[in-house]
Amino acid sequence: MIRYRPIARRAWTWFPPAFALLISAGCAVGPRYSRPSTPVPPAYKETPQNWKVAQPADQVLRGNWWEIYQDPQLNALEAKIEVSNQTLKASEAQFAEARALVRQYRADYYPTVTAGVSASRNRLSKNRPLLGSTTDYTDLVIPADVSYEADVWGRVRYTVEAARAQAQASSADLQAVSLSLHAELAIDYFQARALDAEENLLTSTVTAYQRAFDLTENRYRGGLVSQVDVTQAQTQLETTRAQALDLLVARAQFEHAVAVLTGEPASSFSLPPAPLHATPPVIPPGLPSQLLERRPDIAANERLMAAANAQIGVARSAYFPALTVNASGGFEGTTLANWLTGPSGFAAVGIAAAETVFDAGRRHSISDQARAAYDQSVANYRENVLVAFQEVEDNLAALRLLEQEAKTQDAAVAAAEHSLSLSNNRYRGGVATYLEVITAQSAALVDERTAVQISGRRMVDSVLLIKALGGGWGASGLPVVQSKPAPPSSSGQ
To answer: Which one of 3.40.50.300, 3.30.559.30, 2.20.200.10, 3.20.20.70 gives the CATH number of domain 1-30+111-149+321-354?
Structure first.
């Protein structure tokens, strides 16, 4: 062992320069990433004519976009999603897992150091060949091994870059899930409110039909009308009552859906009835070019493209030799007295290069697979962009046409109510039959229910438009996930 120390000293004198040479000679062999182009229209086809860019942008959607509806109860329910929704918590855990994976791959930038201790008592066979003078001995060892694969060709670099892009895509997915959950809650809330308004309409209609039935029954007792009129009035009354009860089924389902979204059991959650009286707020769609930065799902697809591009670099690095630096050292002795002394020290260092000579096309197929995966991600990205513009145009068109339909339907309701008033007067005067009254009642009720349903659809489509625009999110909200190794601190942490 005493003769080994000069050899170890000479080995360590050339190891640092060789190690530095490997690091400085590193060169990535993968392609550079740039976002593929995609067609972006200069303006939305369905942009409202009265919308202008605010100066400053005081009408731009913010993070808590649901506050634009100025409904305190909706705001309170939406706030519960961030705290109690289990789907959102699962997405948050998935994002945390993706960030941890980046740290796992970043560890490959550093050497792997292992250490241990062993103690053994050995007895050699006296009949073994070349037996020395000692047959019984003690071996005490404290070894330390260092192994490092130099990232000469960028394999680790591209692996970390792919994991970093995946983590950012996971963050965008988290925001997409959050946006979807908040939008679903708002949709369920407004649909429940629309059903409350429709139920109020049917309840007041039942009251009116009850008075009409009482009037018809009194006229029958006075001999002014036949029993057919009484039967017709009763049929109209009971049918409307059944319609009012049928609404409660759908209304209960929306209430239960809101309970799940807010993280509460449906059995203990209650949404007090409140008729819908709101109208859709003005929602500025912004410029089409901004949509690529405002949609979290588009951002996720773009980050997945970056990850797929990095995987091409990982596949290419397999064509080059792997350079590994190995070093070991420690103390080895026969007793505790000489174990940790200078003569008991040992050390060794070496560099190895390994190249795959023949693999029957495995590396080539892996490279082709990486390129095909990248092409697929590009196609998915461009398709997602096209679908995003479609969704915005769909909801802009729906809001524009529903606004016109609401005005026309209001005129139809007014005409139906006037017709019903005339029919009632004619019936009371004995000029018309009760069939004319029933026809007018049915037409008025249908028009009034349609008007309420249009109001609910307008609110739902306004939420869908906000969702299609990405809510108040922006690509600048993607987290900065460190991809390069940080210098180790003096404390070794």
So the answer is: 2.20.200.10
Q: Does domain 38-110+152-319+362-477 have CATH number 1.20.1600.10?
A: yes
pTM: 0.84
Cβ-contact 263, 177 below 8 angstroms: no
Query: What pLDDT, in 10s, does the model give residues 245-292?
Result: 999 999 999 999 999 999 999 999 999 999 888 889 988 888 888 898
Name the residue ranges covered by the structural domains of the chain: 1-30+111-149+321-354, 38-110+152-319+362-477
Per-residue pLDDT of 321-333, as tens digits, reads 999 999 999 999 9
